[in-house]
Fold these 3 entries.
Entry 1:
Amino acid sequence: MANSSSKDYQINDGIRVSGSVRVIGETEQLGIMSLSSAKNLAYSSGLDLVLMSPNANPPVCKIMDYGKFCYERDKREKEAKKHQQVVEIKEVQLSCKIDNHDFETKANRALKFLSEGNKVRVVLRFKGRELAHQKLGRDLLDRFEDFCREYGTADKRPVLDGRRMTLQINPIKKKPEKSEKQKPAAETAAPAETVVDATVGGEE
């Protein structure tokens, strides 16, 4: 039997409600009864009484093995985390006067990020009178996107914000290879993404 205190639920002698509670057994509803009767019923079965819905009218308690309940819940959460994909947004900075060597260096860096499943935010900074030549900036970002086309695609055109023109390139999701003998597997839900900004040094 679990301890009366829990960071997740009120259980056993730690339950603080007034009046009656609705009790659910392991396989069926047991009806409305006093809290003391519900606890005695749980204890007599060697189980725990757990307050599941404190705001219900009346509050809902369930008779269960609380230790087993927590173990199975934690196990499900760990399994979910294993299939959770953490996607970072890597930033690459360009300038209008970037030379071919620096361009290819930064584009290859972006390819590495995309191949690892990360997104890439390409930032082009206009200096001085360069802002009057926005088409040159868009052409440069289009060239950058074309360089990365094998590993990623942009979902929209470059966006101008002040003196910054940005383009986000998303990685292309690779389809798993199937052998000729394998039958198509059932579709599964896409893994959750946690976005973390990570800036990579760029042009001065």
Note: The first strand starts at residue 20 and ends at 24.
Entry 2:
Amino acid sequence: MGVKVLKFGGSSVADAGQLRKIKNIIESDPDRRYVVVSAPGKRSSSDSKVTDLLFMLKAQADNNIPWESLLGVIRDRYTSIADELGIETDLDERFEEIRARLREGCSEAYVVSRGEYLSAALISAYLGYDFVDTQSLIRFDQKGRLLTEETNVRLKAELAKHERAVLPGFYGGYEGSGDVCLFSRGGSDVTGSLVARAADADIYENWTDVSGMLMADPRIVKDPAPIERISYIELRELSYMGASVLHEEAVFPARMSDIPINIRNTNAPEDPGTVITNSGDDEDGKVISGIAGKPDFTVISIYKNMMNREIGYVRRALTVIEEAGIPFDHIPTGIDSLSMVIETSALEDKLNDVLDELKLRLKPDEISVEDNIALIAVVGRKMSRTPGVAARICSALAQNGINIRMLNQGTSEINIIVGVEAKDFEKAVNIIYSEFMA
């Protein structure tokens, strides 16, 4: 018997109908033994996610706003599912504990984590699987950083006691105190990957409401082709530019153990989805694996004669934005120039202070700022073995009247970053897609 670990997102556990679907999925394959679940998501566009309701619940309690009715609303979400499916559970006891902890002034992390906790308790009863709480198994240091190896040891030892189990995603506990610590939103993906590693899984199936990844954003490109297989490193490049259905940290535990990740659709389980592996796919004939991009970047350009002769010049420039608490995305350089490409939102009201500090410390001959720049990432492992990819991109854009403001290829040669004016962003994405997929 093999081992498959499954994670179901909020839309997959939103109501009784969705739980029937996941039960059919799990029971269709005896290798599907460990299940990680999120809190119930929206049942319709006008509905609320349980996690959002729990954040609101804690805020009301902290501000002496009557909160009992909201707790009742949350309770009804779970009891309605249990009643419709005929599940025998101890939800009353679990909600009494939450009520008591709220009166004692418990942490926000504890309250919010109850979404996944209750979801896992309910689904384990529905499936007849063991319920395994992750609070004592997934460990964080006091700064909230995941203790990967400690977590793996604890999870591995616990899973060995259970043939089949349901685990809540999104949270663990602090080393020492054991208090609840949350991942960032979407962190149930990370829990699933950690469980897959600890279980020595053959595959980690991440079930959501889309049938895998597409080669481009369908809101920009009409009917983009699906990505059947992709490497972890290609996924990382695309997800950095926003094209991901996975929490970005979910890749690493599975990658460490060379466990494939399969993105699947709960509402269309017959679709094969996207498989993410260390090697990707060298047989599909496609030069590029995907295109992703984001508008709203600002470029700070610095020019100084003989810059390359000043030791530490780039370091001093980066120190200025580091001290301002601003991350940068790219730093194209020349002999006498450097540019810092930064998301406009990260600069906020800091731009003038940053410019003043750069002038003071670097004494440039010239400094300029250009906003409304969009970046497009063209990603593919085969690009390094295919002559003329950059030339095709530049030629296609030029023939369609789009001016390239920046072109940067990483040393790994699996991505080319193209900078264009924000007004040309969607047109440029379509042109590049058509160039390689026509």
Note: The first strand starts at residue 4 and ends at 8.
Entry 3:
Amino acid sequence: MTDMPRVTEITDFDSPELDLFARTSEVQLLRYFEPEPGIFLAESPNVISRALDAGYEPISLVIEKGELQGEKARTIMGRCGDIPAYTAKLDVLTQLTGFILTSGMLCAMRRRNLPALDEVCGGAGRIAVLENVTNPTNVGAIFRSAAALGMDAILLTRGCSDPLYRRAIRVSMGTVFQIPWTFFDKKTSWPEDGMNFLTEIAFKTVAMALKDNSISVDDPRLKAEEKLAIILGSEGDGLAEETMARCDYTVRIPMSHGVDSLNVAAASAVAFWEMGRK
């Protein structure tokens, strides 16, 4: 793009130009263009770049004044074209929750329609399935591990936190834009329809859970499987009993020092490392 954003300086945190970034909830952003997909906020030049690389459309920018002439900011603005851009001094922008951690830049971007399950899973050999993981920090961390450690795609039940919530994007370091993912749609019940779908496309299913019949995460049978779906449960309750009963394997991570479990994000990294390798 040759056009650059129009930069307007903001001196008051209560300025309406900051409403989208400071006074609009995640749910309001999600529904901003309803029935069309809404808006998400990407933070930092690296994360914004990954979203742009993935084809997401920028709407507007907020840039800390001290960063405005920097190479990263200029590069991002050059890629965003003629959209509104706002700048302010750090003492104004620090009133935006978490802004001080964003390397001086926020970008509002349009969401896209979610891909179909078949599209996400086509050609995949290892996928992660998140069942009702409600903490956006954990969702973001799982995405980062999945992208780094051999997962080809991620499926989420409708009880999960949205991967495009601001905190999830930030914790993922933008990997939510690098690995294919989607939610099970309203017509696909979980676990019944969802598990049937995985079986129909030849995935063996793995429940990450501490049960009497659990096998170790490094069991050679797992690596021998051509296609594996690794299913991770909510932070407090773990996987539903019905989900575990339907899985082909129940898998545990061996522990020491009397520790009985790991946070779901930490457990995902161990599982992906072991089972993502063939």
Note: The chain has a mean pLDDT of 90.
